[in-house]
Every structure is written in C-alpha cells, then in structure tokens.
From TrEMBL:
Keyword Signal: yes
Taxon lineage: Bacteria, Pseudomonadati, Bacteroidota, Cytophagia, Cytophagales
Name this protein carries in UniProt: Redoxin domain-containing protein
Organism of this sequence: Hymenobacter tibetensis
Keyword annotations of the record: Cytochrome c-type biogenesis, Disulfide bond, Redox-active center, Signal
Keyword flag Glycoprotein: no
Length: 380
C-alpha cells in the first residue's frame, strides 16, 4: 500500500501528436531477497519534487518487491524494521536509487549491509559502500573498546584524547576514499551523493562550492545537481562574514523574540533540541562560557528544533540543564529558522558580532571560549 504524505502529485506534462500516444513514464522494480531478516514489512521512503512518498509492502520469508514511477530525485531509503520497531526509528536502512529497470537488493540478515545492483547509480553506490564499510567497522570496534574500559579510565583526558585521535584517523581515511572517487568521476551523477557524504552534515560553504564546481556541467545541471546548487547558495547566505538573517520566534512564555533585539552583544545562536544527546552534553560547557563572558557583552539565543508534541520536554530540558539564556522555538518540524540557516544536523551554532555579522560557525568545546577570549578580552 502506498501512502502519500500531504502533497499533490506533480507529473511532467506529456507531449502528444495526432498520430502518436503519450510516452509512458519510466518505471522501476525493486526486488529484495534477505532470507535471514526478521522484518515483516519493508518501507521505501523517497521524494518526487515536493511530494514525499512512503511505500510499504509485506516481507515473505525474506522476499519483497516494490514497483513505481521513477522520481525526479532518485535517492530513496529502504527500511526493514525489526518487529515492534517503528520504521522511522529503525537503523536497518539502505540507500537505493530508483532508476528505470529492475533493481535487486540481496543480502542475508541486515538490509544495511545488502548489495544493490541492476542500474548504474546502484552499482556505483554498492561499489563505494564496500570500501567505506571497512571504516564503519573500524569505528564500531574502536568505540566498543572504549566503552569496555572501566568507567574511571574512560573519563580521563588521556583516554578521551586517544579515542578522538584514533577516530579522526579513521575518518580521514574515509575522506580520502571519497575525495579519490570525486576526482576520478567528475562526469558521474553518483558523485553528487558522494560529495554530500564528503562535506558531511555541517559543510563549509566555500569548500562545498569548490568541489561542486569541479564536477562536469551535465552533473551540476542535473535535477539533483540543481538541489545542491540551492543548498550551497543557502550556506553562502549564512557563511562567515554574512549578515545573519533576522528572525522572530516565540519563547517558552509565548512572547516573540527577535534576533535583532540582541544587537549590541556578541550572540551565539545555538540550534539544539531536548532529544539531542550531543546538544545536552554540550550545555554544561556552554553555561560556563556564558557565565564567564555575559558581563562583557556575550549572550546565547537557543533555537529549539522540538515540535509541538515535545513542548513539555523542551521546557523540562531548559529547567533540568539550567539554561539561563533566551530560548525560542517554532515547535514545528522543520523549524523555519533552521531551514533559513541551512541547519541539517544539531548541535550547530553561529557566533555573531554586535552588528549581527557572522564571525564563526560551529564552535564547540574549547573553540568557543578561545574565540571569545580573543574578541572580548581585547575589547573590554
């Protein structure tokens, strides 16, 4: 059964003549074989323009099948949740590219490790995933070893520094694989997806634009290439040196607060949510920085990505974490401010000067107090 999220289906117009029939739309067929899976249902998430689609089908002894019209943007997520696990929370997911023809998904138990073949994009994806999976396994082993340490040893700066150093080394090796692929495949559409993996969830606009510009014009001007063009343009609008877009959202008391109301201060716009573990872990350090520099003209504006059903959790998190600075939220998902700032992952932050210009992006750990000491100890 296919469920269309609340958008209207927009089909491209088909040209006709008096002597010919309209051309039929290109179709895809996904055939899956995962004999060891415990999943009873399979879900296919994808978009066609502004239309979001969730297709579902039963899994019989590991076999399942989807049929449909090839969307304008081919990337989809195939999800096979374990019984009792909501599909949108399952980690058993795999990227699949919905192209014309028959696409085969073959594996054993876990769909995330399955091979996808049958069409060009899926062949490229499976080939590269085989290389990258090695690094994922190395990271999993590294974190497992860290968690196995006695609690007292885990908490030491030496152990944490060692973990960070080794994890960064694995990450850099993966980045080298992505970079080599991009250099060798400038005319391949799959390079657009590799580029997104390479720049990560918090990309720098300048590096993103440079790498995108090295791809062939046919790739840059493809439907997904145009999506990335807009994404890069959005990031450039909130890059270092740009005037931060003004906005107004309601605080916990329902009263609106504008970003520009805080002009005259150095402002850290902190994107977070009550359900974001890394955000909450960052809060104690941020409180220390706030207390140290608030008398010198520094403040924080929290922008929560919680939705309406999470309002109570948002308020509780503010209270539990003891956050003393102003907080706002649209209590919708997506949050329009997050969209305007190109925020795809949290935590993220933007440091503004007293005139509202962006001085730095994503200052975490010791980076934020170091930057503020440079700015405020010099000017106060």
């Amino acid at each position: 059964m296919r469920r269309l999220l609340p958008f209207l289906l927009a089909l491209a117009p088909l040209t006709t003549t008096a002597q010919s029939k309209p051309a039929l739309p290109a179709t895809f067929l996904v055939q899956g074989r995962l004999p060891g899976t415990t999943a009873r249902m399979a879900y296919l998430y994808y978009k066609n323009g502004t239309q979001s689609i969730v297709d579902s089908t039963a899994v019989h002894e590991g076999y399942f099948q989807f049929k449909g019209v090839v969307p304008a943007l081919p990337q989809a997520q195939l999800v096979l949740p374990a019984p009792g696990t909501p599909a949108d929370r399952s980690e058993e997911r795999l990227p699949v590219y919905l192209e014309k023809g028959t696409i085969t998904v073959v594996g054993t138990k876990q769909v995330k490790n399955a091979a996808v073949e049958g069409t060009p994009l899926n062949h490229e994806s499976t080939s590269l995933a085989t290389q990258v999976r090695t690094f994922r396994a190395q990271l999993d082993a590294l974190y497992a070893a860290y968690e196995a340490l006695p609690a007292a040893e885990r908490a030491t700066p030496v152990a944490e520094a060692k973990l960070t150093q080794e994890a960064n080394a694995i990450y850099e090796k993966r980045q080298q694989v992505y970079a080599a692929y991009l250099k060798a495949h400038p005319t391949t559409l799959y390079s657009l997806y590799v580029l997104e993996s390479y720049v990560g969830p918090r990309p720098q606009a300048s590096a993103y634009a440079t790498l995108f510009g090295e791809l062939a014009p046919s790739v840059r001007n493809s439907p997904y290439g145009k999506v990335l063009q807009e994404r890069i343009a959005q990031l450039q609008r909130v890059a270092v040196g740009a005037l931060a877009p003004d906005f107004s959202q309601a605080g916990p008391d329902g009263k609106p607060l504008k970003l520009s109301d805080l002009r005259g201060n150095y402002v850290l716009i902190d994107f977070w949510a009550s359900w974001c573990g890394p955000c909450r872990q960052e809060n104690p350090s941020l409180i220390k920085v706030y207390n140290a520099y608030k008398v010198k003209g520094f403040t924080v504006l929290g922008v929560s990505l919680d939705n309406a059903s999470q309002r109570a959790a948002w308020l509780k998190a503010i209270e539990t974490d003891g956050l003393p600075w102003p907080q706002v939220s649209s209590l919708t998902r997506p949050n329009p401010v997050a969209l305007s700032y190109g925020v795809n992952a949290i935590p993220q932050n933007f440091l503004l000067d007293p005139q509202g210009r962006i001085l730095a992006v994503n200052l975490f750990g010791e980076e934020l107090p170091k930057k503020l000491a440079e700015l405020l100890n010099k000017t106060n």
